[in-house]
Amino acid sequence: MNYISELETFIPKERVSTNITILEQHSKDESYHTPSLPNVVIYPESAEEVSQVMKIASKHKIPVTPFGVGSSLEGHVIPLNGGISLDFSLMDSIIEVLPNDFLVKVQPGVTRSKLNQELKKHGLFFSVDPGADATLGGMAATNASGTTSVKYGIMRDQIRDIEVVLANGTTMHTGNLAAKSSSGYNLNGLFAGSEGTLGCFTELTLRVYGIPEMIVASRATFHSIDSAINAVVNILSAGIQVARIELIDELSIKQVNKFSDTNYDEMPTLFIEFQGNEAGLLQDIEFTKEILADLDNHAFEFEKDTQGRNKLWGARHNAAYAFKHGFPGKQLMTTDVCLPLSELAGAIKSAKKVLKEYNLDGGIVGHVGDGNYHTTLMIDTENQREVEYAENYNKHIVEYALERGGSCTGEHGVGIGKMKYQVLEHGTALPVMQAIKKTLDPENILNPGKIFYDE
């Protein structure tokens, strides 16, 4: 292929691969979506190299699909039309920590754990915690969130600036270092969540936070989903500063116990984390006890030391892997909808009812503090009836959410799996989004086949 030879004129051959094993590694993510091989994998080391790749791709009209670590859940990194898989793993430098501004500049291949390891030296941490040790570029591209968003917000809220290379090779910045701006359109908001369809991120400036003086984790178990959700609403209404408040249903707790060697009660459970100064935090905990006492609360237990707290959150983060381990030979399918808090209990009860009707293997977890929940499904992709049931189940919970003012995806992104719901969710706003895509990527070479159906 002529363009590969052209790429090798400015990127060393050892960073240009057509090895079949490497191609297969870049043909898939963590989702159930069908893999598709790229023609070549490129490992850039700078924004200048990314710009050159895009100029050549634009000239030859070659598709380019950005790749982080492949932890996405809706097929974002699958190169549906072949072409170039642009692997950012070598662009993994923490460029600068600005502790007095509570900012950090990083390359897109830096992982969440690597960043927090460095920030700890400065008494700081990065808040967004999606579970997987994803790259920050991938997290920005999908507008990730996770367990801490109830207090700190989602990925988009942390972004001050993105250096992005456009389809034609132009390099631009979307923001600056200032805490706020009323100047021009909000390009940070546009590019965060664009899933590699508008440009390739080569540098991120992100907001960071001081490490809290005290952290306490707890488990609250309930006799019903209704009581658990009511507890969430009452805790948030009282102004209690919880950093995380996660729901794990009894089916998920069962799998978690098997996988993580825990012995939690197999009941609807809230995992809660309190952060702050000691005096204020202890007051919040006492207030929470009073709130739970008025509800159908079975137990309220604490993990007081770091080891117990890490084990609790490790169990929550590994819930999906607990299902994968518990159902060998089946593929993971994770749903992802977000609703107003007032509609959440009804949505989860409906989801559990339909899950039972279809007799599917799975359970429900959720970042219930912001109305986001997931059903973890394990499906036999060779069983067409089971695949159909899973698709119908996903359709049911998405339509339920959209009818009540929610979204088809709270954090996983659209990718391949949620394209079919874009018209229903966005209506007349969808052509505006498509016009932006057409303007910035007229040849449709940036991650084609994602978010929108190709015209």
UniProtKB/TrEMBL annotation:
PROSITE patterns: FAD_PCMH
Gene Ontology molecular function: D-lactate dehydrogenase (cytochrome) activity; D-lactate dehydrogenase (NAD+) activity; FAD binding
Keywords in alphabetical order: FAD, Flavoprotein, Oxidoreductase, Transit peptide
InterPro entries (UniProt xref): FAD-bd_oxidored_4_C, FAD-bd_PCMH, FAD-bd_PCMH-like_sf, FAD-bd_PCMH_sub2, FAD-linked_Oxase-like_C, Oxid_FAD_bind_N, Vanillyl_alc_oxidase_C-sub2
Top-level EC class as recorded in UniProt: oxidoreductase
GO biological process terms held by the UniProt record: lactate catabolic process
Residue ranges of domain FAD-binding PCMH-type in the record: 34-211
Cofactor(s) needed for function: FAD
EC number: 1.1.2.4
Family the entry assigns: Belongs to the FAD-binding oxidoreductase/transferase type 4 family.
Protein name as it appears in the record: D-lactate dehydrogenase (cytochrome)
Organism: Virgibacillus necropolis
